[in-house]
Amino acid sequence: MDRLKSSARLMIVSDLDHTMVDHHDPDNLSILRFNALWEAHYRHDSQLVFSTGRSPTLYKQLRKEKPMLTPDITIMSVGTEITYGKSMVQDDGWVEFLNQKWDRNIVMEEASKFPELTRQAETEQRAHKVSFYVKKDHAPQVIEALSKSLEKRGLDVKIIYSGGIDLDILPKGAGKGQALAYLLKKFETEGKRPVNTLVCGDSGNDAELFSIAGVYGVMVSNAQEELLQWHAKNAKDNPKIIHATERCAAGIIQAIGHFNLGTNLSPRDVSDITKDINDASPGYEVVKIALLYEKWRRAEIENSDVFLASLKAVCQPSATFIHPSGTDHHLREYVNVLRNCYGDKEGKQFRVMVDGISASEIGPDTWLVKFDEWDLSGEDRQGCVTTAILSTKDSGWFTWVHMHQTWLEQSGKDDWLL
User: Which domain of life is it from (predicted)?
Assistant: First the structure.
């Protein structure tokens, strides 16, 4: 909550499965396009919120499987848990609010009377969420009867059905929409309500997000019938909500452009990033260099001395590089290492991703930049924490003064080049 000193220029609140994450995209190109866009143009003054039906256990599992950025805020378990930052600090105020008129034991007792309900895995049973599977044909009758029985027991609950099979019982004040409303009110109290908010979803448990006053909304092209039906019934005349023509994260990128919320040209979509040598943003500079490194190893740019010379040109003559192994190098000399790896990932599922770029001006035209960098090779990944000093003092464009990397994970050290 405290990363930004003023209101976020844009806050994106996105569901994960089949919205931000496309499980039918084995190359993960859609989410990688979004990641590059966010880190290059938005991370420094905007906020990213993931809102998922997944429990913390399954959320962390998804992070290991897919190239997901680190969000500023994570809303999990269908809006019953809110955490902040990389360390996922719990919002105790939200917990206290949800405890009102909620008794998990009574919920379990009443739900056990319905043989149509099949209890979900233990990881999905949370303090303020009880989850079952129920067939689509039985869902309406079960929901109606269960709601009445819980009301008679004095509980205020909400029953959400999504995906044609998932049934979640929550405190009445919970849900993705209520969690977002709580956050927006919290920001407003601090005088930092986001300038614009874009909500993104694909299924029934995302419908509440689109009900929050003043937000923009995008239903991705692959949105499920239950969400489209909700939209037709409740918001078909709302010009702030669109049904994208693109799937998943690509639909989110499309919505940013549609609503004029900022640039929606991802650096991954720039036809020739080698010609875009200078940019006024430290974030864009970091993303650009990472993509050039990726393209070099994938043989997507020409193997030439001119290219290597251009990389050396953005390194100051005295620039130093501390390798994750602890060895020191002159950065310009280390660029020569790239000669040995040109095209070694050609035709392979190799990508480079940067995450969590933060830049602070530490002197006139000088920035301290920190970020995580990941080499992704299929299901394998190697990562480093990178600290760099960038300067525009003498040239007017960014030059690298110093770079220091340390391991994020122990695997694959021998494959780490730059």
Answer: Eukaryota
